Amino acid sequence: MKKTFTVNISGIVFNIDEDAYSVLNDYLQSIKKHFANTDGRDEIISDIESRIAEILTESITDTKEVISIEDIEKVIKAIGLPNEFEIDEEEPIAKQRSTGRSGKETKRLYRDPDNTMISGVCGGLGAYFHTDPVWFRLAFVILAFAGVGTGVLIYIVLWAVIPLAGSTAEKLEMRGERVDLSNIEKSIRQEIDNLKDKFNDFTQEAKNTYKKKSEEHRDEVNNIRYSVTPDS
């Protein structure tokens, strides 16, 4: 009889046999080592662990309560090994999808937190149907006026029933992209770069504002100086 261990992965508790535990532990250690010097390391690992927990949850049934090594092999096949995913920033997404990687490519409907005016409903619909969210926003506005509030009611219902894409894995599913190591890392890198760009823009704007205020203040001081200087 094999020993079993109780492990907590992304907040979900699993019973796992000894062989599976050993392989899973080695796999997680290889992932942590691979991303050790990567920006956003903690978020990447957290999203990977969430994806692992999701896959293992699918393996649990009423008659099967212990995770086996076959289940861990399924995880590794779905997510991939770290050395398989050296990202080429110039490589198109379409080409990455055609390389035979076995990550999950299931599209799901979420609210998009990165493209939102109220709750992200239209942004999520746009991502799911590959359509500009503006068209959905326009449709809700038209329904709101033409349907005597119907558009508002539909929007509120969708807001209530559609979950928010909170993790990187969920954002990938929202766009219909594979949830594997490569895309998780790439997506988080892009988010970090976007934050850096926004921060740099904010810093530059603050510098320009400060410079403008300083020039205005200097002009005011000069005007005051000239106004109080006695005639010679």
Largest beta sheet: strand ordering: 1-2-3
Tell me, rounded to a whole number, the average pLDDT.
Answer: 78
H/E element order? EEHHEHHHHHHH
Radius of gyration: 26 Å
Low-confidence stretches: 87-104
Specify the overall morphology.
flat
Helix content: 55-70%
Structural class: mainly alpha
SS elements, strand count: 3
Biggest beta-sheet profile: 3 strands, mixed
Question: Which strand-content bin applies to the residues?
Answer: 5-15%
Distance between the termini: 107 Å
Number of H/I helices? 9
Question: How would the blueprint of this fold be written?
Answer:
Layout: E1 4-9, E2 12-17, H1 18-34, H2 41-59, E3 66-67, H3 69-79, H4 93-97, H5 121-129, H6 133-146, H7 150-161, H8 168-175, H9 181-228
Search tags:
single chain; 232 residues; mainly alpha; three-stranded mixed sheet; 9 helices
